[in-house]
Structures are given as structure tokens and as C-alpha cells.
Amino acid sequence: MRLRSLQILVVCLLVAFWYVMTAPGLIPPFYFDKANRAAFFFGEPQKVFWVIVEWFTTGEIFGHLGITLLETALGFFIGSAFGLAIGLWLALSPTASAVMDPYIKGFNSMPRVVLAPIFAVWFGLGVWSKVALGVTLVFFVVFFNVYQGVREVSPNLIANARMLGASRRQLLRSIYLPSAMSWVFASLHNAVGLAFVGAVVGEYLGSSRGVGYLILQAEGTFDINTVFAGILVLTAFALALDAAVGSVERRLMTWQPRASETEKV
Amino acid sequence: MNSSVPALKLEDITCRFAARDGGGAYTAVANASLSIAEGEFVSVVGPTGCGKSTLLNIAAGLLAPSQGSVSVFGQPLIAADGVNRRAGYMFQADALMPWRTGIDNVIAGLEFRGVPRAEAVGQGEAWLRRVGLAGFGDRYPHQMSGGMRKRLALAQTLILSPDILLMDEPFSALDVQTRQLMENELLALWAEDRKSVLFITHDLEEAIALSDRVVVLSAGPATRPIGDFKVDLPRPRDVSEIRMTPGFLALHREIWAAMKEEVLKAYAAQKAA
């Protein structure tokens, strides 16, 4: 509780600082030569707030937000599915892994954001070019975790399952997959964040809808308050997504020991 | 019952591992032969690092010997064709699936064999009761103590009623009290249907207290059996009481005399390395 109030205090201080520094005429200008310049460059918190309120009261934001979240979700699921499938395949087949190794490394070290214009050409300005960008970002996070996860399955566990009569298929289903899943969940927070980045960056580089598009539009007219409003809305939803992932993770990973867990009697 | 055919027979087994640093190959086991009769409880003791586990992995069909042959009830066992289907293996380290509850771990083997779930769970519950874990079926392994996990592993192995039980220092991680309890429980379960058991341990007292026969291995590398002692102590036994009997002490003295030199050799080799 004390922690929560301190956290709120930090936000209040930040907003207060922002207001004091930008409100025209409140304090004499010390860097800019005109009183309203600071507000022009940094926006004003109360105006940002009203932009957000207006977005939600008129419902203007929902369409854009829906598109951005749809792109995030699609990028996340498709990227994770590919990462899981290819991670499992390469981890279980040493030859394929040896052949693909330089390509995987190459694609991973490439700054993938530069692919966004290409995707826009390939998939158009709609949802799918953003999904494609999200997929390329999410894929590698999940892929490397699955790959690592499968490789680090304890040989004991595999030997035990084999002695209990597991076939190759059953080994995959009851040993490799669950073991990889714990690594996938470890990377999930990252993956969701990256899918979100992919969607917003994609929108920013070329689109007709989405929160990234709103930000781009506002920037075009030097409407800094709307830019900040867009950023704040995105941040809030990124946090919400992260919390959602956290709750899914807690539900699915009950078998994992948590630090200093005690049984309630 | 054809008791003339051994349950498990290792003949002239040699096992060489390629060295990691490009040096000469490491010979873990050399020309080892071992035979276990049906219903016999055999312990293999030897100094640390002498390739006891290697021998067990060969018997399980998890590892192919470089040379020599393994037969199970007269049938040759070829590791490339799969593991020893008539054997159950209890590992030294934890080998339970951490993402499965107790009951799901116990019935894993039945599940792999395609037994319908309801039936498997019924059998699993019965086994949980037999190993003293009734009511703990919904716990995950991390919520159990070391002793409970060992019981779970025992139930997981025994539910398939294997004809041969391979055990690799299964109780070495337990504290002394829990360990003696587990040893007694193992003997009680074994007495019910007398499977063949190959029990690996470095603890001579444990070996004598449990077994019909104790085989002593030489220090590594190139381990081979150097002694074979019959334990004719009466059954049923209580492992903590039998340790005090004169028969036990005499055997212990006799086997230890054979083992001592090998233990010292292994110790010297480890110190030199």
C-alpha cells in the first residue's frame, strides 16, 4: 500500500514538473525566447489529458486501438507458432540445425525494422504488413527460447520417459513440448512487447488506421499534445497486455516452484 | 518358470568413450560379465567413478556397449532397436516430469502404453497408496520432499510391473533415516512378487542389507567385477536391525577387504587427476 502511494506520488511529481515547465507564462522563459514555446515543443499535460478524454468519449480511438491490438495479437500468435515449430524442429534435428545456423544468426542480427517498407510493398498498407513485421520480431525471441529449452531438457528425463516406454512422438508431446513451453512463457512478456512494437512501427511507416497512424498524423501538423496522448494510450495498453500475459502465465505454470512458496493449511 | 535362463546376462562387456579433448579413448568398462537369475536381488558396489552407471545403462539398453552382448531372458538386447522393454529403471537424480502432478507422473508409463485414462488413474491411486503417498496425487514434484519424490519415482517404475528392476543409487540423495525407511519399503514391495533387481550403490552396508548377492567392481578405468559374494542372511530383513547381526558384520568385513584396495586406488587416481 505504501509502495503504491509512493508510485502514485512519482507520477504526480512528474506531471507537476511537466505542467510547471510548459504552462505559458507560469514561470519566466529561461531557454526559449517566447513564453509559449515550451508548450509547443513539449505539450501540456492538461491538454494531453483532454485529448485522451475526447478520444474515449467520442469513441474515435476505439477503431484505431482495435486495429493496433489486432495487429499485435496476430503478429504475436503467428510469430510464436512459427518460433515454436521451427525451434522444435531445429533442436531435434542436428543436421538441419547445422545447415540453418548461419541463416538464423544472419536474420537475427539484421535490424528487422528496415524490412517494414518492403512488407508495405508486399502486403499493402493494411493490417498484414504490420503483422509481418511483428512476426519477424516475435519469431526470434520465441525461436531461441524454444531451441534452448529443448536442448536443455535433462537427459535423465528423456531416459526415464524412454524406459517408461515413450515413443518418439510421445517424447515430443510429454517431454520436449512442456519443457519448451516453460521457456516460451519466460519469453512471452518480451514477445508481446515486440509484437506491439512491430504493429506501431509498421503503422507509423505507412498506414491509414491504428494508433501509430494517429501519432504520425498529429506529428504532421505539429500537434504535440496528440502525439503525447497517443504515446500514453499505447503505454497503458502495453502495460495491460503485459499484465494479461502475467496472469495467463501464472495459470499455466502452476507446476513451477515459486520463491519461498508455502502451503496454506 | 524357467529358472535356468538368467533374467539379465551381460557377457564380456567393454565400453569405450571417445575422449573429448582428442586424446585416447576412455575405457569405462572392460570385459565385464554379470548374470542375474530370475527373482534375484543383486547389488553392484564399487568405488566412486568406476562406471557402475555405465553398466546399468547398458543393461537398460540406453547405451550400446562397444563390445560384448546383453541378453534379457535369453533374448539379445540391441540398444539401437530400443530400450529394454522388460526393465524398469530408477535413476539416481530426479527424473520426474516437473509439469505433471504426482498421479500423472505415476501413470505416465501406462499412458505411453495406451491404457485408458480412467483405468490408469485407478491403478495409479492404488500405487500411490502402496508407496504411502495416498492423497498426494495432486501435488507437483516441487511440492514434495526428496523422500516423497523417490516414492513417486518408485511407483512410476513399479506400476508397469517390470520383470527386471534397475536401480542406480536411488536413495543416495536421501538422509540416513529416510533412506532406511525407503530401503525397508523397497524390500517389502520386492518380497511381494520377487522381481530380478540390479541395484547399484557405493554403500556396502546398503548392498549387503538388501541383496542376495553382492558384486564388487574394480576401480576405473576398465572396470570389471573382481568379487562375487553370496549374502545368505535370512529374509524378511529389517535393514536397520540386520546391520547389527554377526553374520552381517562378517560379510561386511570380508567384502570390504576385497573392496578396500580398489577404493584406495580410485581415490589416488582422483587425487592425481
UniProtKB/TrEMBL annotation, chain A:
Q: Which GO terms describe its biological process?
A: transmembrane transport
The residues the entry assigns to the signal sequence are none
Transmembrane intervals: 73-92, 175-202, 222-245
Per UniProt, the keywords (alphabetical) are: Cell membrane, Membrane, Transmembrane, Transmembrane helix, Transport
Membrane topology is: Multi-pass membrane protein
Please state the protein's primary subcellular location: membrane
CDD domains hit by this protein:
TM_PBP2 (cd06261)
Which top-rank group of organisms is this from? Bacteria
A GO CC term attached to the entry: plasma membrane
Q: Which residues are in the ABC transmembrane type-1 domain?
A: 65-245
Q: Which InterPro entries match?
A: MetI-like, MetI-like_sf
Please give the family membership noted in the entry.
Answer: Belongs to the binding-protein-dependent transport system permease family.
Extract the PANTHER family matched here: ABC TRANSPORTER PERMEASE PROTEIN HI_0355-RELATED (PTHR30151:SF20), ALKANE SULFONATE ABC TRANSPORTER-RELATED, MEMBRANE SUBUNIT (PTHR30151)
Annotated protein name in UniProt: ABC transporter permease
- Natural source organism: Reyranella soli
From TrEMBL, chain B:
Q: Which UniProt keywords apply?
A: ATP-binding, Nucleotide-binding, Transport
What is an example of a GO molecular function annotated in this UniProt entry? ATP binding
PROSITE patterns per UniProt: ABC_TRANSPORTER_1, ABC_TRANSPORTER_2
Stored InterPro entries:
AAA+_ATPase (IPR003593), ABC_transporter-like_ATP-bd (IPR003439), ABC_transporter-like_CS (IPR017871), ABC_transporter_ATP-bind (IPR050166), P-loop_NTPase (IPR027417)
Q: According to its UniProt record, what is one Pfam family this protein matches?
A: ABC_tran
Q: Which CDD domains does this UniProt record tie to the protein?
A: ABC_NrtD_SsuB_transporters (cd03293)
Per the record, the domain of life is: Bacteria
Regions that span the bilayer: none
ABC transporter domain residues:
8-244
Q: Family assignment? A: Belongs to the ABC transporter superfamily.
Q: PANTHER family annotated for this entry?
A: ALIPHATIC SULFONATES IMPORT ATP-BINDING PROTEIN SSUB, TAURINE IMPORT ATP-BINDING PROTEIN-RELATED
How is this protein named in the record?
Answer: ABC transporter ATP-binding protein
Species of provenance: Reyranella soli
